[in-house]
């Protein structure tokens, strides 16, 4: 049972509560679920303020599972991509934390639950297509498939790397859309109470390369950009004349934003006058799928 | 015979000899496609890599996207041994074989680069196809049955992955795969740590193994057998030693990249791409686009196997220099401007469609 409390995103967990077949009204108003609603609120508040997670109540998996379902319903109903990304970041980090001591057997069970083809022979290995999909947000050199050990269609991983990939699969699951009718008022109340750290960015996108513009759009949606993408974005914005404060406001939308760190890094880029990376560089980092300068890829043969 | 797998799910596009483009066309069956093509006799015939519920709809959202084949485009242009052979000034019609940016005769910059199609180009493109297939087999675990190779009818090949699991891939994943094929993003610094460089062993899979083998061969050539042996045994190489010999690492990377395939990444990335219909004629050569099995690829020679037109005589006036070429077992050319010849239709078509001559009626 503690398995389900720790991993409430799993299909197994969903099955446990599906039997009850609760409607959205019941989720919103049933007094028996008040604990789950309170936990959902806390989930979202912690996600939004990017604080650390609370320990799951291992004796009460149902509340844990319902609270994630409620949190996801609220996110979906808000139609707010930034909130969606914040919750996904939170759940993915939470998974990393709670799976630290997990048995290998259970890690594989989670993998199969998340539809990730993962095996454990002498080492962990994951099917290359799953690997490429799940590692796309981890653009550091060591995560690129070209730099990995590969055997017959499988990428070899350490246990920690395997957990990291599974955390990405958790992120993917939380990011995926669900069908949700109008939010009932208790959920709207929770949503209204959230302080989503959004800042209006007044400056236009004029003069930015399409590739940089799309990085800017991603971060404003609250997507979690890899380090090189952040560097590329910050240096291009600074070069286009944005102030440190303006660039910082952009980075506030990042799900793992830490003001002190971000400010320091932006100031360093500004102070040292790093040249923004060229199209060629950014393409080689895998930041501009398709073309860097051109808005639409022409199709012909 | 014209062939298209899952014909009813594809969008078709035709370009006629009148330069009219007909798009958003779909067919319920292969038969109706064949009848249509026999009727309109298109200059170019394309179909989508994408599979749709309603391929004839104009708006992407209305089509019901089901997935798209992963497509690799290998074009000989720019590969070693295959480049432009003629530069033509569109202002004054001056032509020369040496590259020019500006016309030496009239000073115009309206230069048309022209290419021909010869065995060297096909050989170069084939070599790339083989490298690609090797990577797909070794690193992606794909057998030859999940892969379709076709000759485009011109200077290149298409390789498509038909395996179901690949159909649903998004753009980012496709870009990543195309990058992987060309070893983009390979970085030997991932092998370094405070203790030194721990290089991969030669029997490893993927680019790491290819790099290791390249590195060992470079070391051996430069009489550093001991270091080569250490790498084979998985020992760590001192940092300072490698730092002073960066050129070795760079050389190993470029040797490793000889095994990378040159594919047009923008094509692989594009899930809305249209590609030539197998067994239709290519409008720039008169040769047939053809699907090939893995074994056929080796022996395949488009100038005998893909000849798509008859040998009935056609009169041609040469307008631009034509190099010597062979097709259908016969040798033609070289021809120079204003020659008027009677040639078999397939040879005449090649000259006319590559804009080196005009048919005389």
UniProtKB/TrEMBL annotation, chain A:
It comes from the Archaea. [4Fe-4S] cluster binds at residues 211, 279, 288, 292. Keywords: 4Fe-4S, DNA replication, Iron, Iron-sulfur, Metal-binding, Primosome. The keyword Nucleus does not apply. One of its GO terms (cellular component) is primosome complex. Heterodimer of a small subunit (PriS) and a large subunit (PriL). Regulatory subunit of DNA primase, an RNA polymerase that catalyzes the synthesis of short RNA molecules used as primers for DNA polymerase during DNA replication. Stabilizes and modulates the activity of the small subunit, increasing the rate of DNA synthesis, and conferring RNA synthesis capability. The DNA polymerase activity may enable DNA primase to also catalyze primer extension after primer synthesis. May also play a role in DNA repair. This is DNA primase large subunit PriL. It comes from Candidatus Methanodesulfokora washburnensis.
């Amino acid at each position: 049972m503690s398995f389900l409390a720790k991993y409430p995103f799993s299909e197994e967990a969903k099955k446990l509560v599906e039997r009850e077949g609760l409607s959205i009204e019941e989720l919103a108003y049933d007094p028996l679920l008040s604990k789950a609603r309170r936990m959902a609120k806390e989930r979202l508040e912690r996600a939004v303020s990017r604080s650390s997670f609370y320990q799951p109540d291992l004796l009460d998996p149902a509340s844990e599972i319902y609270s994630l379902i409620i949190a996801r319903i609220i996110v979906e109903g808000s139609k707010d991509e930034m909130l969606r990304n914040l919750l996904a970041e939170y759940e993915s980090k939470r998974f990393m934390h709670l799976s630290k001591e997990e048995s290998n057997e259970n890690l594989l069970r989670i993998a199969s639950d998340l539809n990730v083809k993962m095996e454990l022979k002498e080492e962990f290995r994951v099917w290359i297509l799953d690997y490429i999909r799940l590692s796309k947000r981890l653009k550091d050199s060591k995560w690129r498939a070209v730099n990995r050990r590969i055997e017959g269609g499988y990428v070899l991983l350490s246990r920690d790397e395997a957990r990291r990939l599974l955390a990405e699969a958790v992120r993917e699951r939380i990011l995926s859309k669900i069908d949700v009718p109008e939010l009932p008022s208790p959920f709207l109340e929770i949503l209204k109470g959230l302080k989503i750290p959004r800042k209006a960015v007044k400056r236009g996108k004029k003069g930015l390369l399409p590739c940089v513009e799309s990085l800017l759009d991603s971060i404003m949606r609250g997507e979690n950009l890899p380090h090189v993408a952040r560097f590329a974005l910050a240096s291009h914005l600074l070069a286009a004349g944005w102030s440190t404060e303006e660039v910082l406001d952009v980075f506030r939308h990042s799900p793992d934003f830490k003001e002190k760190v971000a400010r320091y890094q932006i100031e360093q880029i500004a102070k040292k006058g790093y040249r923004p990376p060229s199209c060629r560089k950014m393409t080689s980092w895998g930041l501009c799928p398709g073309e860097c300068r051109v808005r639409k890829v022409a199709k012909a043969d | 015979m014209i062939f298209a797998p899952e014909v009813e799910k594809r969008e078709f596009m035709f370009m006629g000899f009148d330069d009219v483009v007909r798009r958003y066309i779909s067919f319920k069956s292969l038969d109706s496609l064949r009848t249509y093509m026999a009727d309109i006799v298109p200059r170019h015939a394309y179909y989508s890599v994408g599979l749709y519920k309603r391929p004839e709809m104009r708006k992407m959202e209305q089509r019901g996207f089901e997935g798209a084949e992963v497509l690799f485009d290998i074009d000989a242009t720019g590969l070693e041994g295959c480049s432009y052979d003629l530069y033509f000034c569109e202002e004054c019609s001056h032509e020369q074989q040496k590259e020019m940016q500006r016309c030496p005769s009239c000073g115009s910059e309206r230069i048309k680069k022209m290419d021909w199609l010869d065995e060297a180009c096909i050989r170069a493109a084939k070599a790339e196809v083989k490298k690609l297939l090797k990577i797909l087999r070794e690193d992606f675990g794909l057998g030859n049955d999940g892969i379709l190779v076709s000759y485009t009818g011109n200077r290149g090949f298409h390789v498509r992955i038909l395996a179901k699991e690949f159909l649903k891939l998004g753009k980012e994943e496709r870009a990543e795969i195309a990058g992987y094929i060309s070893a983009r993003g390979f970085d030997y610094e991932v092998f370094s740590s405070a203790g030194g460089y721990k290089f991969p062993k030669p029997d490893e899979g993927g680019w790491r193994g290819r790099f290791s083998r390249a590195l060992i061969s470079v070391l051996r050539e430069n009489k550093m057998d001991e270091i080569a042996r250490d790498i084979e045994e998985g020992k760590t190489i001192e940092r300072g030693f490698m730092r002073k010999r960066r050129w070795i690492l760079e050389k190993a990377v470029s040797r490793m990249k000889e095994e990378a395939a040159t594919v047009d990444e923008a094509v692989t990335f594009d899930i809305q791409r249209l590609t030539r219909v197998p067994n239709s004629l290519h409008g720039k050569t008169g040769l047939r686009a053809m699907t090939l099995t893995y074994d056929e690829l080796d022996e395949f020679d488009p100038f005998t196997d893909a000849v798509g037109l008859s040998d009935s005589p056609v009169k041609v006036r040469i307008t631009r220099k034509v190099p010597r070429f062979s097709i259908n077992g016969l040798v033609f050319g070289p021809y120079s401007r204003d020659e008027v010849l009677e040639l078999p239709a397939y040879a005449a078509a090649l000259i006319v469609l590559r804009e080196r001559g005009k048919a005389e009626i």
